[in-house]
Specification:
Elements lengths: L3 H6 L4 E3 L2 E5 L2 H7 L8 E3 L10 E6 L11 E5 L3 E8 H8 L7 E4 L8 E7 L3 H4 L7 H15 L2 E16 L10 E3 L21 E5 L2 E7 L1 H12 L3 E3 L7 E6 L20 E3 L5 H9 L1 E17 L7
Parallel strand pairs: 7-16, 9-13
Antiparallel strand pairs: 1-15, 2-11, 3-9, 4-8, 5-6, 6-8, 9-16, 10-14, 11-12, 12-14
Helix pairs in contact: 3-5
Length: 309
């Protein structure tokens, strides 16, 4: 994995054939829209009154099954299923944590143990959410972890290296790949009466080409954060929704991980596409700058072996 300066400055000569798609949700935007106040500690009480109707929590069985791929799934009909899931990853999922956000505190060996969870809810808003990890579903998982593992957490902010997305041109002019959009994915009202188009309200990376419709810059900064697995904050002061079309090589971009599937990568192919930093400047009129910023960390104050079903 290359260093941040390499990600920002080096010009690439190769591309990777890959398909990456990120659905931008309000929960994601809440994480990266604003920089938090330095030095603040935020208590995070467990939200009351939202729980699964039925839940089973068991240690994953030893043997070959313990080495099967981890699966954390939100399924239609208000069902949550986790197979061979490490407790720390369950916590990360429950709190919608980004890969660069640390889990610290009483991080005993229990956090590395694997568990199988099956839970259901009859809440109408959860049952109708199909396979999306909605806010209520995550809240129910937070409550389940609090009830069964006696999990107690709080948020802290720590000064770390980060990237900020800014305008790259002194005159503020945008590049040809960043155009105002009639679709605003942050405003559901703008989608009423519109014929749905495949790819609406997603940011995709296909064979080095970034495409998006109706996205605001905080959402694009969030996409870059997931692409680079580093915190990226929007500081462009661009208010409107945009359609984005950009071509970049994969030079300096970490291999897919976290929310991106490694199975989607093909062998690298030769390309004259510019490095990400150059593509951002030339095609969109924006740039990534290195700065120190307070980044969230989830501190474990208490966690115990799960209670019986």
């Amino acid at each position: 994995m290359k260093h941040l300066d390499q990600v920002v400055e080096r010009r690439g000569v190769m591309t990777v054939s890959r398909i990456r798609s990120v659905g931008i949700t309000s929960a994601m935007l809440a994480i990266l829209t604003t920089l938090p106040v330095s030095g603040a500690t935020q208590e995070r009480p467990t939200p009351p009154g939202v729980s699964f109707d039925v839940a089973s929590v068991r240690p994953s069985p030893p043997g070959p099954d313990a080495f099967s791929p981890v699966r954390i799934r939100v399924q239609p009909g208000g069902r949550f299923n986790a197979t061979g899931a490490v407790l720390e990853e369950l916590i990360r999922f429950a709190y919608a944590m980004e890969s660069y956000e640390a889990v610290s505190g009483k991080a005993s060996g229990l956090l590395k143990q694997k568990f199988d969870i099956n839970a259901t809810s009859d809440r109408e808003d959860v049952r109708e959410a199909s396979s999306r990890a909605t806010g209520p579903m995550r809240t129910m998982l937070q409550n389940l972890l609090a009830q069964r593992f006696r999990l107690r957490v709080r948020w802290e902010e720590r000064e770390q290296a980060a990237l900020v997305l800014v305008r790259s041109r002194a005159d503020g002019k945008l590049g040809p790949g960043l155009r105002s959009s009639s679709l605003d994915c942050a405003d559901p009202e703008s989608r009423k009466g519109r014929t749905p188009v495949q790819g609406d309200c997603q940011i995709s990376w296909i064979d080095g080409r970034v495409k998006a419709n109706g996205q605001r810059m905080p959402a694009f900064a969030n996409f870059l954060s997931r692409l680079l697995r580093r915190p990226v904050f929007d500081r462009t002061n661009l208010n409107g929704p945009f359609d984005i079309d950009m071509v970049s090589s994969s030079e300096g971009i970490p291999p897919p991980g976290g929310s991106f599937s490694r199975a989607s990568i093909d062998e690298p192919v030769a390309s004259s596409a510019p490095a990400l930093a150059t593509a951002l400047k030339e095609q969109l009129g924006v740039a990534l700058e290195s700065r120190m910023a307070p980044i969230r960390a989830l501190v474990i104050e208490n966690v115990q072996e799960p209670t019986d079903n």
